[in-house]
Every structure is written in C-alpha cells, then in structure tokens.
Automatic annotation (TrEMBL), chains A, B:
Organism, scientific name: Streptomyces tsukubensis (strain DSM 42081 / NBRC 108919 / NRRL 18488 / 9993)
NCBIfam families: cobA, PRK05986.1
UniProt lineage: Bacteria, Bacillati, Actinomycetota, Actinomycetes, Kitasatosporales
Entry GO MF terms: ATP binding; corrinoid adenosyltransferase activity
Protein name: Cob(I)yrinic acid a,c-diamide adenosyltransferase
Pfam families found in the cross-reference section: CobA_CobO_BtuR
Positions of region (Disordered): 1-21
Length: 199, 199
C-alpha cells in the first residue's frame, strides 16, 4: 500500500508534473523468483494506459514465459489497451535472416542493436528487456554502453531490465532497483517446476 | 533462467508426477516493489492454462491495481484462457449487503470468510489474496487459522498471498516465499507515483 508521498523533495528545478512524468529505468535482479513476472505485471499497467509495449526476451529457450506471451498478445490484439510486440531470441529474432546461424552471444548483441534502433525511433513507451542482465553479466553486451544509450534516450520511454547479477553500472544508473531475495523455494525440497506456475 | 532441476529429491513416498502437481502456497513479502505485480504476473500463467482465477484485493483504496484489474478482466472474458473473478474490499465485497457499514477490520474478515468458502467449494484453481499479509499483521485475521485452512484445503488449489510483514507462521508453512528487497526507489529521490507505473 504505497502512500505516494516522496520522502524528499529534490532541488532539481523541475516542476512536479515534469518530475512525475519522468521516464524510468527499472532493474529486477537477485536470486529470487518474480523478476520477470513483476516486469510483465508492470506491462499490464502500461497496456491499460494504451501504451505501445515492446518485449525483448533475451533467453535461448522458448519454453519459458509462454503464459505471459499469450496473455499479453491477446491483450495487445484486443483493441482495448496498448499494443504489444513480442520479440524472441529463442526462436530467432524476426529481423535476423533465417539462414544466418548466430551464437548466443551474437544473438544477444543483435537483440540489443534492435533495442537501440527502437529507442532512437521511440517505437515503444515501455520496453521489457527480459533476462537482459545475463548478456551484460557475461560480457557480451557492454553495460557502460547500455547506460549511455539509456541516458541519452529521447522522449518518454520506460525500460525494465530483468535477470540475476545486474551489473553495478546499471544498478547505479537505474531509477528503481528491486532485489528479489530467495527465502524459500519448492525446488529446494525436491518440488519440480509445474505447468501454470513456472511457465 | 531456472533450470527446473531440484537440488534434493525428497523421501516422501510421492511419485514425481504427484510431487510435480502439488498445490502450492506462495508468499510475496518485504519492503520492495513487485509483490503484487509478480502475483498478477503469475495469474497470467494460470490464465494461459485455462484455470479459474479468483483475485481478492484486501485494500481500502480502489485506485491501485486498476491496470491489472482491467487486463485480467479482459483476459478472463476473452474466452481464450481461464476465467477471472475480481473481488474488491475497497468498493465493498459483492457478497456483503450494501447497507452494512463495515470497519476495515470487519471487511478484511468478511473477505477471509469468503476465501474459506471458496476453498471449501474449490471455486478457483489460483487465488490471489492481494495485500492479505496486512490484516494478519494487524491481528484482524489469525495467521494460525489461515495456515490451518490452507493446510486442509481440498483438491489442487494454489494460493498467492502478498503484503509486507507476512507473519512467521505463514512464512514457515508456505512453499515459496520471495522477499522483495528495496534497493532503490524513485520516491526516495522525490519522484512521485505516476500513471502506468504505480497503477
């Protein structure tokens, strides 16, 4: 139950309205569950505002997130809220030619190149860069470049980045960082992933 | 990127299949953002499985969660996945007579009584008890009774409970507990809540 009351009023020369509508960068990191799930929950609010949403899934497997993908696709096509474009690395990015064989590293970089193009064109109002912390953590995409591109992005574009081990530069730059801590997980006691819960 | 590999195989006499389809209790607690958002994200997966979903919002204000409510209501009515019933304490539970004036404490108890009835009848496959940690924390609903009801619930019903300060009995009993830690929040630097982001 957030109270909506800031604890400090900054001396930044902005009006309340300008400050209120500031484009934000969110990072959901940490070992616990809920990082991506909370990002897709945020997409529901964006959809309700009628915002165009771009999801970029930086994961190899196409198995995960099928529930979220179908739900957001149905919502995006319902004509009642915003639109949703769902881009998947796992089955090959749609803008990459089918006959090009990409390593995971190359595929992650191709994804990031497209995000840069879309940010420059202001294609979306909300970007969900799902599991994008991994390619940065693995050194495939330079976190310093990501921060620079985010800092210079035009207009009013919100960006959510998920994944464990978000790099320090990104955490320092982000407006909102949530660390999902694992307190208890059924897999610790032998519970396997199940349909409707894990995917 | 969960690997789906349990770290321990328990000696509980259950088959893998029985263990896999075990009904689960989730708790999303802690001071950070994403507790409710992740619960609604989970509801997207449940919807995709065609499960009936019951959301019980244990909050006074009807302002919050409007995006999630509209999105899940549109999904529930789309005929493509599960159904969604959205119950709100803030505007008065639908099963409580309009002319009855309830205190917050009474209203929270009425909500819990309905959850108990629905669990007994197996009305839903997924229950989102949003902000339900508060009435327990405040002593309005007895956590020991909640644990008892959850332990004895019939069938295959999953329950997600959100809110800060989840009581210890519930955390001990739950299958999955995620503590959302606040690393950084824009309100700390004077950013006010904004449309599409906070609601």
């Amino acid at each position: 139950m957030p109270q909506g009351q800031p604890s400090v009023v900054p001396d930044d020369g902005l009006t309340t309205r300008q400050r209120r509508n500031r484009p934000l960068v969110f990072v959901h990191t940490g070992p616990g569950k809920g990082k991506s799930t909370a990002a897709f929950g945020l997409a529901l609010r964006a959809w309700n505002q009628g915002w165009p949403i771009g999801v970029f899934q930086f994961v190899k497997s196409a198995k995960w997130k099928v529930g979220e993908e179908r739900a957001l696709t149905v919502l995006g096509a319902s004509g009642e809220g915003g639109t949703v474009d769902w881009h998947k690395m796992g089955t090959g990015w749609s803008w990459v030619q089918r006959d090009r064989q990409l390593s995971n590293e190359e595929a992650a970089r191709e994804g990031w190149e497209q995000v840069k193009r879309d940010l420059a064109r202001e294609t979306y109002r909300l970007y969900v860069l799902d599991e994008f912390a991994y390619p940065m953590h693995w050194g495939w995409v330079d976190p310093a470049e990501v921060v620079e591109v985010l800092r210079d992005r035009p207009g009013n574009q919100h960006v959510v980045i998920t994944g464990r081990n978000a790099p320090a530069e990104l955490v320092d730059y982000a407006d909102l960082v949530t660390e999902m801590g694992k307190v208890k997980h059924p897999m610790d006691t032998g519970q396997k992933g199940q349909r409707g819960i894990e995917w």
